[in-house]
Amino acid sequence: MWPNGARCVVAITVDFDGRSNEAGKGLAPLGIHAAGRYSARRGVHRHLRLLERQGIPATFFVPGYDARTAPEVVRDIVQAGHEIGAHGYKHEGMLLPSDEEERRLILSHQILGDLVGSAPVGWRSPSGQKTSTTLRVLRSLGYLYDSSDKDFDMPYLLNFSDGRDPMVEIPNNTLSLNDTPWYNVSMTPSSEVEAQWKAEFDEIHANRGFFLLTYHPRAGFGSGTPARAAAISGLIDHIKLHRDVAFVTLAQLCDWVRGRPEEYEEVTV
Q1: Contact between residue 85 and residue 254 where contact means Cβ atoms under 8 Å apart
Q2: What single-letter DSSP state applies at residue 201?
Q3: Residues 191, 231: contact at Cβ < 8 Å?
Q4: pLDDT at 161
Q5: What is the mean pLDDT of each run of 10 residues along the chain (269 residues)?
Q6: By Cβ atoms counted within 10 A, which residue in 95, 115, 232, 242 is the most buried?
Q7: Shortest CA distance to 248 belongs to which of 166, 117, 141, 147?
Q8: How far, in Å, are 131, 200, 201, 246 from residue 7 at the CA level?
Q9: Neighbouring residues of 261: CB distance < 8 A, sequence distance ≥ 6
């Protein structure tokens, strides 16, 4: 089922979520609202070093606003060999009128494409919201996969009623395999979060599944700071004890699923 005959596939995904998160709420990124600045100033590079030490690829989802305000950091991500996906413009936390949603999707797509040198093929909703406009515009821009839905624990195909080529949906579990609920809701210590993530991996591995971790390289609700970054490194160390695991970017996983449509479930939208 998985690349290289692996028993389990692992995708590490990083949501940049820098100043865009506060800007989207109309907040000046100062004082108590300055945590998003940590991503570009410290957190992203801390995690780039971590990923380099571990020798694994990752997918970074970057809002257009963050790419515009910290272009050199996005270039560093690409230079390190990681994938860039789109993640809204100002980390929108609300539904927008159709024409404004389309404008922002296109704007972010153009910013990232111009900066990186190639257009992104993957998108993740900055707030989990997705509409018929979203899918229509993403398809028109050539996106191959989405990683926003929460309805399954395996990748699947999004078929469209008009018969056009499907997209791949790569669900992300934002309740347990995401740092924000642990650090922003339950206020769980990083040592306990690491233990929970290891337990999730062990069960997924036992069932030949798909493990996708989502985290944020910022301060506050993210994993940019030292002890929280160390928890992710400890998790990766644990995963690498299992030799039958394949680390992939989401673009690589998307290509794998698209090449084997008969092996994956389909949902018509």
Answers
A1: no
A2: H
A3: yes
A4: 83
A5: 92 97 92 95 98 98 98 98 97 90 97 97 93 92 96 94 89 92 96 98 96 97 98 98 96 97 93
A6: 232
A7: 147
A8: 34, 15, 12, 8
A9: 157, 166
Structure token digits, residue 220: 């506050």
Name the CATH architecture for the domain at 3-268.
Alpha-Beta Barrel (3.20)
Quick check: 121 and 257 in contact, CB under 8 A?
Answer: no
Distances (CA, A) of 208 to 1, 2, 8: 9, 9, 5
Region of 81 (left: φ > 0; alpha: ψ -120 to 50; beta: rest) is left
Instruction: Quote the tokens at residue 45.
Output: 């590079």
Structure tokens at 167: 């997209």
What's the confidence (pLDDT) of residue 162? 82
Q: How many residues does the chain have?
A: 269
- Strand stretches in the chain, DSSP E: 8-15, 59-62, 83-86, 122-123, 145-146, 156-159, 167-169, 210-215, 245-247, 266-268
What dihedral angle (degrees, nearest 10) is formed by the CA atoms of 183, 174, 77, 28? -60
Given this model, what pLDDT does residue 91 score? 93
User: Helix and strand tally (H, E) in the chain?
Assistant: 11, 10
